[in-house]
Amino acid sequence: MNRPTSPKAAGARSVDEITGGRRLRRMRKAAWSRRLVRENTLTVDDLIWPIFLTDGENVREPITAMPGVFRLSVDVAVREVEQAARLGIPAIATFPQVDGSRKDVTGSHILDPDNLINRATRALKAAVPEIGVITDAALDPFTSHGHDGILRDGVIVNDETVEQVAAASVLQAAAGSDIIAPSDMMDGRIGAIRDALDANGFQDVAIMSYATKFASAFYGPFRNAIGTQGLLKGDKSTYYIDHANSDEAVRETEQDILEGADMIMVKPGLPYLDIIRRLKDEFALPTFAYQVSGEYSMIKAASANGWIDGEKAMLESLLAFKRAGCDGILTYFAPEVARLLKG
Ligand code: PBG
After folding, report:
1. Ligand 1 pocket, 140 CB below 6 A?
2. Which of 18, 89, 153, 221 could bond 65 through an S-S bridge, CB–CB 3.0 to 4.6 Å?
């Protein structure tokens, strides 16, 4: 029987001959040297915590599709945001579950200075002035059909929606919002919001544009959280970006920057790291990712089943955003990860 010739005997090159003596593992051999050459880090400064608001008092209602996330009444939100500030989280973003009786086809309740968003902003800024408050000016929590725009004869009417979103932004700024983050993707909204804010003395209120928001299946649990799931007829593909597109994301973002966006955001997050890197390289603006509800719930569900180490997967996913070029991440993990980083 023929024994196979050993590669060495056959004249195969040694590893040093192959690599030219370059050994990439050299710097990986000890924890201290891995730390020394580590290119990216996740810190509490990177975190924006999205929270869900609901009416009532002393309410902390679990959200079925998002284990560990709750709908909070304003009083409870104030307490939890105080804790978040103590953990060092720089900013929060609020999303309201609006009572069904207040919804209509145009989402008119967004123009009530005393709606849930604005009441929460006032309470939060009074109690925890050191934390940044980001509010969304999109109509979907307020419309009876769950769309982000005014719906007429089956069509989302762009310009009327923009007028309403801009007016709502002024009310949100008046309530104390530090950053307006419109998630509706209507054409011209950033410029209209900037004009409206400036005209009303809110030059210092910033705009974080949901510059590239993709039509996505990953928003499912969020719609369960704010109660728009059963309402939505059709999908949002006439205003959100087709998730097959990357060049279009660049054009959308450039437009929002020209109109006055101070910061840009990519949403969802993890499936769109290529977009984040491209936008950061192209525009070098403060760039954020929204690790959306579906991304959060997938990690939680797999972890609950013992299929992955949830804590490690959480940290790995968040660090991936930093590596891709993000300055920060909107994530439901924010308090959990802040506690972990604090040790
Ligand atoms: C809508 C809006 C969405 C999210 C926040 N605001 C998407 C949608 O419901 O279509 C999703 C956030 C998440 O999934 O965590 N303006």
Report:
1. yes
2. 221
Please say if 213 is a catalytic residue.
yes
Q: Does 228 fall in a domain?
A: yes
> How many residues are listed for the chain in this entry?
343
Tally of structural domains, the chain: 1
Place of tokens 């009786």: 101
pLDDT digits (tens, 9 = 90+) for 71-107: 999 999 999 999 999 999 999 999 999 999 999 999 9
236 lines ligand 1 (CB under 6 A): yes
Instruction: Decide: 259 in ligand 1 pocket, CB within 6 A.
Output: no
Whether residue 203 is contained in a domain is answered as: yes
Per-residue pLDDT tens for 60-70? Answer: 999 999 999 99
Characterize the bridge pairing of strands 47-53 and 150-152: unpaired
> Which residues lie across from 265 on neighbouring strands?
288
CA of 222 to the centre of ligand 1 (A): 6
Place of tokens 């950061």: 280
What separation in angstroms does the CA of 29 have from each of 20, 39, 210, 254, 282? 19, 16, 42, 44, 36
Q: Which residues of the chain are modeled with pLDDT < 70?
A: 1-2
Catalytic residue among 267, 280, 300, 322: 267
Per-residue pLDDT at 211: 93
CA of 203 to the centre of ligand 1 (A): 27
Q: CATH number of the domain that 327 lies in?
A: 3.20.20.70
Count the neighbouring beta carbons within 10 Å of the beta carbon of residue 290.
26
| 213 touches ligand 1 (CB under 6 Å) | no
Q: With H, G, I as helix, E, B as strand and everything else as coil, classify residue 213.
A: strand
The answer to the question of residue 49 being in a domain is yes
12 CB-side CA count, 13 A: 7
Q: Is the CB of 190 under 6 A from ligand 1?
A: no
- 317, 218 contact by CB (below 8 A): no
Domain span including residue 82 = 44-342
Q: How far is the CA of 36 from the centre of ligand 1 (A)?
A: 39
Among candidate residues 134, 129, 119, the one with its CA nearest the CA of residue 49: 134
- By the 10 Å C-beta count (0-12 exposed, 13-18 middle, 19+ buried), 150 is classed as buried
